[in-house]
Amino acid sequence: MSESELIDLEEIVRDYASGFLDSHQKKDADLKNPIIDWNRMFVTHGEARYTTPVAPPLPVSHVLFSAVFANNTPSPQTYALRTERHTKSSCTVSFSKTYSFGVSISLRLTPPNPVIEANSGFKSDFTHSKGQSQTFERQLVWSVDNSITVPQGFQTKAELVIKEDNYDGEFEVPCYFEGTVLVTYENKKRELVSTVREHVKKLFANQRGFTTDEQGRPMFLVKGCCKCRFGVEQSVNLTQTPLAGENAE
Which InterPro entries does the UniProt record give (predicted)? Predict the structure, then answer.
């Protein structure tokens, strides 16, 4: 992925609010470090829209455990097959276009499908730092508790096989802004110089990355990609072959 496009909402607010100060206030105020109160600004996240590549990655099978049960006795024998193995599924979300205000951004991102949500540790609600990707992981447990009967003069090879699927797609999440932002300017003595309160409709109108929805709300389209690797099923494969002639009945 190319370098992420990050829109700094704090910079937009600082530039906008400073325009309401007169020359005396601008000289007195700490213009670089105003106190920005976001508590009355509300962001609603729409449903994520995913696009997948024309040729998606194919599932891959892995052998987690194998054992051979040989029977060189004159009668069938039954063996216990018990084992437990662990694998790790993961999902990485990276952003190619996003916004920031404060230290981190809270975002609601619905998973591409229920299997990924259940098996990869994907979290719908998460917080990401400025310009960074985030990886979710989940440990999956695969277990077998079976009996295997091997005829006389034969051996049986048992393999615990899991199938892992992959997902590699891009997503878009519309984010809708409502409410107001309060900016407070102080001087070096921490004395009040001025305050500016403005509605987000005016703050973010015609700003880079923003459009307006049918309700007149500023809308920012977050873009990124989602790469997941996750287990989907297990199977026990049995292969039966005769023992060498000198060991068979």
Answer: Aerolysin-like (IPR004991)
Residue 36's nearest CA partner among 192, 182, 191 is: 182
Enter the pTM of the model: 0.78
Half-sphere CA count of 129, side-chain side, radius 13 A: 4
Cβ neighbourhood burial of 134 (10 Å; 0-12, 13-18, 19+) = middle
As given in the structure block, the two tokens for residue 214 are 């049918």
Kind of pairing, strands 218-242 and 77-100? Answer: antiparallel
Q: Residue 116 has which token pair? A: 């990924």
Amino acid letter, residue 194: S
Q: Which two tokens stand for residue 107?
A: 């975002």
Segment (H or E) for 15: helix 9-18
Number of H helices, E strands in the chain: 4, 13
CATH of 5-242, one of 1.10.3720.10, 2.170.15.10, 3.30.70.20, 3.90.79.10: 2.170.15.10
Task: Report CA torsion sign: 108, 109, 113, 119.
Answer: negative
Contact yes or no for 34/183 (Cβ under 8 A): yes
